[in-house]
Amino acid sequence: MGNGLAYLMLAIWPVVCLVLFRTQKVERALIWSILGGYLFLPPLTEFDLPLVPSMDKVSIPNLSVLLIMLFVVRHKVRFLPDSRLAQILVVGLILCAVPTVLTNTDPIVFQVLSGADPIVFEVDALPGQSLRDVGSVLIAQVLTVVPFLLARQFLSSEDGLREILLALMVGTLIYSIPSLIEIRLSPQINVWTYGFFQHSFAQTMRAGGFRPIVFLPHGLWLALFVCMGLLATAALFRNAPEVQRRQLLFAMGYIAILLVLCKSLASFAYGLVLTPAVLFLPSRWQIRIAAFFAFVAVTYPMLRNFHLIPLDAILAQAEAISADRAHSLGYRFFNEEQLLERAAEKPVFGWGGWGRSLIRDAETGEIISIPDGRWIIIFGTFGWVGYLCEFGLLALPLIMMWRYVRKFGEATLSPYIAPLCLILGITMMDMLLNATLTPLTWLTAGAILGYAEKRKPRQARKPRFALSGALMQGDAPIEGKRTVL
Questions:
Q1: Is the dihedral of CA 237, 238, 244, 245 positive or negative?
Q2: How far is CA 286 from the centre of its chain?
Q3: How far apart are CA 367 and CA 318, in angstroms?
Q4: What are phi and psi of 106, to 5 degrees?
Q5: pLDDT of residue 363 exceeding 80
Q6: According to the model, what pLDDT value does residue 476 have?
Q7: How far apart are alpha carbons 451 and 433 in whole angstroms?
Q8: How many helices (H) and strands (E) does the chain have?
Q9: pTM of the prediction?
Q10: What phi and psi values does residue 333 have, to the nearest 5 degrees?
Q11: In angstroms, rounded to a whole number, what is the distance separating the alpha carbons of residues 280 and 293?
Q12: DSSP letter string over 115-160?
């Protein structure tokens, strides 16, 4: 999908990443290689190569920065976190792909007149997964966590944390120009640039106008990004010298107006409640709020799975706010109930990819369910194991920071860590309703984890698995003969 420019942009992005690493410091190059690809590369366009995962706007930047760091700028890359629990979750998230594939080797066949033996008409089928699919899924899982692992190592300093906030603000300001154009003229930037529209046009119409989408998967993704930019700008304003505060105040007001124009109730609510928190609350309270968000995000799917959430009461509250919002929320709940029943058939390792976890018409194979929340997607695809590893890995940095401020207070903390915790927290909350897990989420979580690990008292360092131009053990090179990997 897409015109020649779309595929050209994907093809040249590794070169763009290389230029960034040659001309910018490592922190800025890493952030903008990931963020730039997310914001400007074409959605839904990919290089579909055999035996490897599809190369798209997420996997190409992730793979590019990893290869550049290993073989061009030759930075030592530690692939495992210091935290033992984080190590288990990373390894579990990657390796859960193996049993998922091996337990889904059977095809799913759609038939008409299925009870009219001996004549059966097969209409369509989803193929079973095989051993050759294991490598592709493993590579995809590794590429998914690349921003997390690299950010843990290279963005966990105070300078790295500030660079993330600065990039979110600058990225939002840059994206505001095409966003305002789409708000006024209708979402057409992706059509004009890459030759296609990436979603249902009807979902861009809201409250008598349009909500922008630009090059992102949906308008809700853009609204959440603008909310992140607003919180980042508020954090920079709070900690800026007096000479810069006027410009940052203007930028904060401008982004707040843009957030209202994005017409997303959830993102608007996040911004309305949390911008004052970033501006006025002490860091310990910001981190407590973020940890609470993480707790809700992790436990809500579990409670939904055991039917312990009062859905009717939630819908009644939504009805009091807006009938349209209540109808949309009720539709999401209905789909989630169907998908939970489907996931319960393979609860441990899930149904795997290719849409096997979706509800389909038994005769035609047509998809009749829509998975919205990230939690139901990962639960249906990789089961309990994948869900616990993914959501646990995202929540762990916030829990570690909460435990730190509870024990040691906030006196020694960077002023930039708490706002980033809030940004990660609202993203996890939004993942309950939407599949808004992006490379920026992993980047933010990795930076927070690395910062939390540095704050943790530890004994002598143990050797860690790392790669650079040579084999490394801990922080010192191995003496003697070396082999090239």
A1: positive
A2: 21
A3: 28
A4: -85, 135
A5: no
A6: 38
A7: 29
A8: 17, 8
A9: 0.90
A10: -60, -40
A11: 19
A12: TSTT--EEEEEEPPP-HHHHHHHHHHHHHHHHHHHHHHHHS-SHHH
